Request: fold
Amino acid sequence: MSLSRSLVVSRGRQALTRRGFTLIELLVVIAIIAILIGLLLPAVQKVREAAARSKCQNNLKQMSLALHNAHDTHGRLPPMAGTFGGAYYGPFFFHLMPFIEQDNTWKSATYLDPNGAVNGNPPNAGSVVNIGVIWPCWDSVVKGNNTWLRQARIPTYQCPSDATLNTNVATDWLPGDASYGANFNAFGKSSGATATTTVVADWDGIAKIPATFSDGTSNTVVLAEKVAYCPGTLRNSGQLFAGINGSQSAGGTWWMRGVYHGGAAFSGATSNQDSYPGDRVSAVFGGGIGIDGTRWDTGVNSMFIPGPNGNNTVSGPCDRGVASGFHTGGINIGMGDGSVRFVAQSIAPLQWWAALTPSGGETLTLDTN
Reply:
């Protein structure tokens, strides 16, 4: 046998003797990969939550600073609901829009489809009229794309950590839901928190800096997180509203809630679809009474509910009568001086209430980080 032939045969025998992984070796590799993934996944989730929490805080920062811009422009702060800055009968978050780079959407309230109905259908382009004033209604239209203004998604009003966003599918307001509420005590009248009837005037406290913040803007909460969808029983008052087919009602937080039904408002009539100055899905906490009898909790009952285990999209213990967070261990808030803080759930309820009252004269100690 020649040398070359011998080498070929030898190499062939070596090739025949090579083997792949055994089953045990393969299982060991898979187990190692699974362990590595198990170790990595929590870290990825923490990074993702940190990014979402940062975005939520940035939204609050933008809104808190926008309040000061609004005050500089108009000499006062927006009301919880009322007439402000050239716009009629709008809720707080509508009035804030020109100061968070949403001026064009704010101007859309000039257009109205008076034949509109709350049924999910788009506006009838042929019946849309220019009413000549900025008056946000259920039937206001974003004329450029012929959609309802109430369905406008405002990114600054939505926190990516809010798992309840876009889950209230029983309504045609999506994606106009929101993840933040405004403190009634800061923008309404404190008397509205204890009144026995709905008083529209209570929703405009004509708040000014520093006049109505005798406790100091750095000691007063003006904005806080609040879940977008909360259909359950109110934790403290036990209120449960009938909804579609007798089911639990569509409680939660919508940025444009607290308006008239357009057709009724301009005909001089009233409608059972009116929500002005506010109702169970208004972006409110800290006091006030809605047109449907909703009472936002005050005093020790106003204590916020932290996330993520404190809220449920189907039933309690979520409570649309208070602020509510999406982050473990506490809640993000915006202060009257424009700063943003994270308040730990260990804060005493009375201390939280002290932070909600701009002129209560309390000594404030917020457990924050």
In short: Confidence is low (pLDDT under 50) at residues 5-9, 192-197, 236-248, 312-316. The CA atoms of residues 20 and 26 lie 10 Å apart.
